[in-house]
Amino acid sequence: MRFDVFTLIPDAVQAYLSSSILGRAQARGTIRIELHNLRQYTHDRHRTTDDMPYGGGGGMVMKPEPVFEAVENVLGPDLGSVPVILLTPQGHVFDQRLAAGLAAYPRLALLCGRYEGVDERIRQHLASLEISIGDYVLTGGEIPALAIIDAVARLLPGVLGDEGAAADDSHATGLLEYPHYTRPADFRGWSVPEVLTSGDHARVAAWRREQSLRRTLERRPDLIAHAPLSASDRQVLARLAAETRTKPTDARD
Fold first, then answer.
1. Residues whose CB falls within 8 Å of the CB of residue 176, separated by 6 or more in sequence, listed in order
2. Residue 89 a catalytic site member
3. Nearest-10 crossing angle of helices 20-28, 10-17
4. Is 214 assigned a catalytic role?
5. The domains spanning 2-153 and 186-246 adopt the same CATH topology
6. Which pLDDT belongs to residue 170?
7. In the chain, count of helices (H) and strands (E)?
8. Which of 89, 114, 119, 142 does the annotation list as catalytic?
9. Residue 239 annotated in active site
10. Distance CA 114, CA 39 (A)
11. Which CATH number fits domain 2-153: 2.60.40.380, 3.30.420.40, 3.40.1280.10, 3.40.50.1110?
12. Quick one: pLDDT at residue 169?
């Protein structure tokens, strides 16, 4: 899979992309990430990529000419078939389901905005999808682009060392993931749950599922309504909810 990132600060994102899992995936040829400096598609001696907004107001706005020229030159005949994603706080909120959908494409283009935003004609006539990584504002689209590349890439075959690892991640199943433990079995008096050292795979699987349901119920109950639940899951949830109702209230509350 190929990712094309259009940015004003390619050096700022290169270090992360060339490290760890993403770096190894590129070395193996599993993914390809190309960074495109938008300033290289300007034609004035100052390499101008922004200007004052019409109508006044604070901040500067990214000009349409270098953005259109960059995307059209890089994508070439693939323009129209490759999703051109504008990273913006006004976009669809990014989640695991959207990551899985994007992982089905052979190529993605990511537009990183800066300043006050981009000229509206970029949004209307170039971007095919707008994505936000949360209800807050960043100084640019580079961090959202990295988040999307990371989340999408780890869903691709051959990127992770354990091919089944992504299937159990938080949100991958509609629930938060169960707790993890590793050696030592006892650390400062805090012991690993006995079930995990029992060697009983069925008990381990049941414990992990219950812990996943418990953690989701406690931390993200909104996810429960849309998660694929079995009859057994619903019984566990009913028991957990009953435990919560009967739990003594702290006198300080």
1. 170, 212, 215, 216, 219, 220, 223
2. yes
3. 80
4. no
5. no
6. 56
7. 8, 10
8. 89
9. no
10. 13
11. 3.40.1280.10
12. 59
Options 50, 65, 169, 210, the catalytic residue: 169
Query: Of 177, 79, 190, 180, nearest to 125 (Cα)?
Result: 79
Chain segment 11-58, per-residue pLDDT in tens: 999 999 999 999 999 999 999 999 999 999 999 999 999 999 999 988
Tokens 């170039």, residue? 126
Would you call 142 a catalytic residue per the annotation?
no
* Summary mean pLDDT of the chain: 93
The pTM for the full model equals 0.84
Tell me if the domain spanning 186-246 has CATH number 2.40.330.10.
no
Residue 110 parent element (H or E): strand 107-112
Burial (CB count <10 Å: 0-12, 13-18, 19+), residue 85: buried
Domain ranges of the chain: 2-153, 186-246
3-class SS of residue 193: coil
Q: Which of 154, 209, 215, 220 is catalytic?
A: 154
